[in-house]
Amino acid sequence: MRAAHITSHGELDQLTIGDVSDPKPASDEVVVEVAAAALNHLDIWVRKGRPGLTLTFPHVLGSDATGTVAETGAGVDSSLKGRRVVLNPGLWCGHCEWCLRGDHSECSTYSIVGLGRWGTFSQRVAVPAVCVSPAPEHLNAHEAAALPLAYLTAWRMLTTRGQLEAGETLLIHGIGGGVAIAGLQLAKLKGARVIVSSSKEQKLKRAGELGADDFIDYSKTQDVAAEVKRITNGRGVDLVLDTTGAGTWPINFASVRKGGRIVHCGVTAGKIAEVDIGALYWNHITVMGSTMGSQGEFQGLVAAVGAAKMKPVIDKIFPLAEARAAQERMETGEQFGKIVLEVSGK
User: Fold this and answer.
1) Which residues contact 256 (CB under 8 A, 6 or more apart)?
2) Quick check: 126 and 57 in contact, CB under 8 A?
3) Residue 180 to residue 186: CA distance in whole angstroms
4) CA distance 298 to 155
5) CA-to-CA separations, 183 to 53, 188, 287, 320, in angstroms, rounded
6) What is the pLDDT of residue 345?
7) Any residues with CB less than 8 A from the CB of 275 and at least 6 apart, and which?
8) Residue 226 CB neighbour total at 10 angstroms
9) Domain-wise residue ranges, the chain
10) Over the stretch 29-69, which tens digit does the pLDDT of each residue have?
11) DSSP H/E element including 30
């Protein structure tokens, strides 16, 4: 089968489109005929390599996908064949204490498709049968492929971790990336007021079209937190959704209200930050990390998206053969929404 894969870590020139062996389902797995797959920053990190990451090459990239179940392993309900599904990219053991209480993304061996096993940038992918769910009927293949990783991450950040409620105010840094846009869309479903920031006027305009209430262009202001306080009449926001990391850490502490919450999921702007412990305890601030989500949370996300007929935002669609160009676009940071690979027939 054709796949976008790497044979060693490195820059874009290490990404190859070529033939690899077809996957075979294990006893608890299904093979999905991939219609479309979406990009994430994880794909770039896996390609470049990270300390402690050990892969067997060749390695197929990609975590997000939608498609049709083509094969079922022994012990898997064969009636799944032919069903249109969307993939939860999480991988968990199913028997540790965290899995037994349903917190799958806290599993002691947790990993992600495209990291812990071959990924979705291929014509077929084998995954645990428990990871597939019916694709929302109102979404086309590109939209369904864009849903899993980013929207599941945002869903857990806002619901399970952040406990966002209707009427609260949320700050989202760097609007334009997948998780940030997912957070905006999901927060508006919950009835929250959303402040977004960007250095690009066009991205702020697009965010407004998705329902954002207030806008901060950090290319034009040296003090984002002061602008947040101005917008909120000195109060501060209830919750900060941060996908960036150390670069926005001090802004978060200066922007959140007393008793407010900060939830992090990324380190693209650095992973080491100093903590003002005095501000932390004096202002009763809660700081949380969050990674992906459980299968229950994924099913809750899919149900909510289906009920609201919400559609993920697509930035651009590339054929599988142009996976290198797709990753290059992501690395420039110019995208607004999800970058998707068209896989079927490629």
Assistant:
1) 171, 236, 237, 238, 239, 240, 262, 283, 285
2) no
3) 10
4) 8
5) 29, 8, 17, 27
6) 56
7) none
8) 14
9) 2-147+312-342, 152-289
10) 999 999 999 999 999 999 999 888 999 999 999 999 999 99
11) strand 29-38
Has residue 173 got a pLDDT over 80? yes
Q: Based on C-alpha coordinates, what's the Rg of the chain?
A: 20
Cα 106 to Cα 108: distance, rounded to the nearest angstrom: 6
Tell me, what's the pLDDT at 82? 96
Question: Tokens representing 324?
Answer: 């290198």
Domain 2-147+312-342 sits in CATH at: 3.90.180.10
CB-CB neighbours of 194 under 10 Å: 27
From residue 175, give the alpha-carbon distance in Å to each of 38, 263, 292: 18, 16, 19
Question: Which residue has 């702020």 as its token pair?
Answer: 204
Q: What fold characterizes domain 152-289?
A: Quinone Oxidoreductase; Chain A, domain 1 (3.90.180)
Q: How far apart are CA 14 and CA 48, in angstroms?
A: 9
The answer to whether 175 touches 202, Cβ cutoff 8 Å, is: no
Residues 234, 210 contacting (CB under 8 angstroms): no
What pTM did the predictor assign? 0.95
